[in-house]
């Protein structure tokens, strides 16, 4: 009986969405495998860890999809407060990696609390924007949602983790757009952003963060240090050609010229070794994922559900655009991973849980109807 119910539930999954996820993971695990080939002690530990994280993530995806997603609305405030507690705790008891004190390491397993905070903030945004969806969106609603963002944003900046802070800020900005932000609001907020940027440059940003921005504007300023990553990424992408140099045969990745090749610059590895064809497959999978999530939001009339889907869409869209933009030298280096592709167990686990939430929503929709099934 339970098996039959589970089978019927799986039948209602959005399998096009799952296809996009699986394609991205396969591209990612192939690139990570290739990166590991270049190491003298190639024990493929990163590949093994990523496979374990994927299996655990798929299990979490299925469990989350089986639950009724509406429980998130009831636990949203608790998740948000727990996330704030984690961010404060990691500043006191956390471990510093790559200049960022944003990790807990227990028994050799690392956990980045900001990944949980992304989910908690999405739920709170969905609650807030959903509750104000019928009202004329104005400054009161902008400040209210901005306050929800401000606390985790500032705590993440203190770590400092500019990449994660940019993701939180970008997700909020896209949700403001979907909520009906007017032109006058956008103009004022843009002005405030410019002033905040100037203030940050003068009093907040560290020297290496300023160097990243300057090198983005002119990579020739410091081609061997601050501009090294961008330069090597461009060389890798350009050398890929139409069909690539072959998996495990990319000169930039195999000779270890390309830093952070399994995380921030994994797109460049794929472009170099699988070529323009591999990039087209990756971009198609990305667009497929974003389209299916946005389509689910369009078919949903219930406000909390709609904004939860839009929040997930926004979070993925920001990460996809920024990571690929950095690899193409269109954006300054931020350290944002490519979802489902870059190495990182915590990021992969969260991404699959978010897909599980989307599946929980889509699998409860009656065929040809906007309403949702109430069964758990």
TrEMBL record:
It holds the Pfam family FTSW_RODA_SPOVE. PANTHER family: CELL CYCLE PROTEIN, PEPTIDOGLYCAN GLYCOSYLTRANSFERASE MRDB. One of its GO terms (biological process) is cell division. It is a multi-pass membrane protein. The keyword Acyltransferase does not apply. Keywords: Cell shape, Membrane, Transmembrane, Transmembrane helix. It comes from Candidatus Uhrbacteria bacterium GW2011_GWC1_41_20. This is Rod shape-determining protein RodA.
């Amino acid at each position: 009986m339970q098996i039959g119910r589970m089978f019927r539930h799986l039948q209602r999954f959005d399998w096009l969405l799952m296809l996009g996820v699986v394609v991205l993971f396969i591209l990612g695990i192939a690139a990570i495998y290739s990166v590991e080939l270049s190491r003298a002690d190639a024990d493929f530990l990163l590949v093994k860890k990523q496979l374990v994280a994927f299996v655990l993530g798929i299990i979490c995806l299925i469990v989350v999809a089986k639950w009724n997603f509406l429980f998130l609305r009831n636990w949203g405030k608790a998740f948000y407060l727990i996330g704030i507690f984690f961010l404060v705790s990691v500043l006191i008891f956390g471990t510093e990696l790559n200049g960022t004190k944003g990790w807990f390491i227990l028994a050799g397993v690392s956990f980045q609390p900001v990944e949980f905070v992304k989910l908690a903030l999405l739920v709170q945004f969905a609650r807030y924007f959903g509750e104000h969806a019928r009202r004329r969106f104005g400054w009161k609603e902008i400040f209210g949602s901005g306050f929800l963002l401000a606390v985790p944003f500032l705590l993440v900046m203190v770590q400092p983790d500019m990449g994660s802070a940019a993701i939180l800020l970008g997700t909020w900005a896209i949700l403001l757009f979907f909520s009906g932000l007017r032109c006058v609001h956008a103009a004022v907020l843009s002005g405030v952003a410019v002033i905040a940027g100037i203030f940050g440059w003068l009093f907040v940003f560290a020297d290496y963060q300023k160097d990243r921005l300057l090198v983005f504007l002119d990579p020739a300023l410091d081609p061997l240090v601050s501009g090294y990553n961008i330069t090597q990424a461009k060389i890798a992408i350009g050398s890929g050609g139409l069909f690539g140099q072959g998996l495990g045969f990319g000169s930039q990745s195999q000779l270890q010229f390309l830093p952070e090749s399994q995380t921030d610059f994994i797109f460049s590895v794929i472009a170099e070794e699988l070529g323009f064809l591999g990039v087209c497959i990756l971009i198609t999978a990305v667009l497929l994922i974003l389209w299916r999530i946005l389509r689910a939001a369009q078919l949903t009339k219930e406000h909390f559900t709609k904004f939860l889907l839009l929040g997930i869409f926004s979070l993925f869209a920001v990460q996809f655009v920024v990571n690929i933009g950095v690899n193409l030298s269109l954006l300054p280096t931020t350290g944002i991973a490519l979802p489902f592709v870059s190495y990182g167990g915590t990021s992969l686990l969260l991404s699959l849980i978010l897909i599980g939430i989307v599946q929980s929503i889509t699998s409860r929709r009656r065929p040809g109807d906007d309403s949702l099934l109430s069964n758990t």
